[in-house]
Amino acid sequence: MKILMHTCCGPCSIYPLHVLRTSGHDVTGFFYNHNIHPAQEYLRRLEAVKQMAEHEKLHMIIKDDYDLEAFLTSVAAKPSERCSYCYSSRLRMAAAAAVEHGFEAFTSSLLYSRYQRHDEIRRLGEQIAQEYGIVFFYQDFRPGWQEGIRLSKEIQLYRQQYCGCVYSEKERYYSTPKAPKL
């Protein structure tokens, strides 16, 4: 099957790519991640995807549309719902690109991360697939978590410490200061 794989980042894409290729699929990567903040982080991740693609001889379609403003506008009023928007906007863009370029199916490296809402990604992927008249290729890649880490370290990919958005960066690095004792 000819599959377009949305790639959230290089490290999360290696294991799913290996699994899909081992199963006989023809895979092309698709980079679209307007959620990543700050811009330096976006550029680091884009570079890591290019490095991974070169190492793996993976053809990439890169939609270098860093529309952070659209992401923030869509999630600022309800940050607690940001993941749903983030998943659906990126899966929707992947589905549109898959249809445009004649792929049989699309999937996402988001299905590799044990930190993502896996059931929601699957549900949204299947819903969006119906809207676009294409197959959402579902596979749970989480069992390969450690193998993916090993492979990404082996080729010295930049490994990010948070999912990408400003809210997850805050959750990762900021802790509420404790009031001094009087």
UniProtKB/TrEMBL annotation:
User: Which Enzyme Commission number(s) are on file for it?
Assistant: 1.17.99.6
Q: Which UniProt keywords apply?
A: 4Fe-4S, Disulfide bond, Iron, Iron-sulfur, Metal-binding, Oxidoreductase, Queuosine biosynthesis, Redox-active center, tRNA processing
Q: Is Lyase among the key words of this record?
A: no
**What SUPFAM superfamilies does this protein map onto?**
Adenine nucleotide alpha hydrolases-like
* Regions annotated as coiled coil: none
Gene3D superfamilies for this protein: HUPs (3.40.50.620)
Please state the pathway this protein functions in, per its UniProt record. Answer: tRNA modification; tRNA-queuosine biosynthesis
Cysteine-cysteine disulfides: C163-C165
The record's InterPro entries line, in alphabetical order, gives: QueH (IPR003828), Rossmann-like_a/b/a_fold (IPR014729)
Please write the reaction equations for the catalytic activity of this protein: epoxyqueuosine(34) in tRNA + AH2 = queuosine(34) in tRNA + A + H2O
Q: Write out the residues that bind [4Fe-4S] cluster.
A: C8, C9, C83, C86
Q: Does the keyword Iron apply?
A: yes
Q: What class of enzyme is it?
A: oxidoreductase
Functional note: Catalyzes the conversion of epoxyqueuosine (oQ) to queuosine (Q), which is a hypermodified base found in the wobble positions of tRNA(Asp), tRNA(Asn), tRNA(His) and tRNA(Tyr).
Q: What family does the Swiss-Prot or TrEMBL record give for this protein?
A: Belongs to the QueH family.
Name by which UniProt lists this protein: Epoxyqueuosine reductase QueH
Q: What is the lineage of its organism?
A: Bacteria, Pseudomonadati, Thermodesulfobacteriota, Desulfuromonadia, Geobacterales
Q: Which gene encodes it?
A: queH
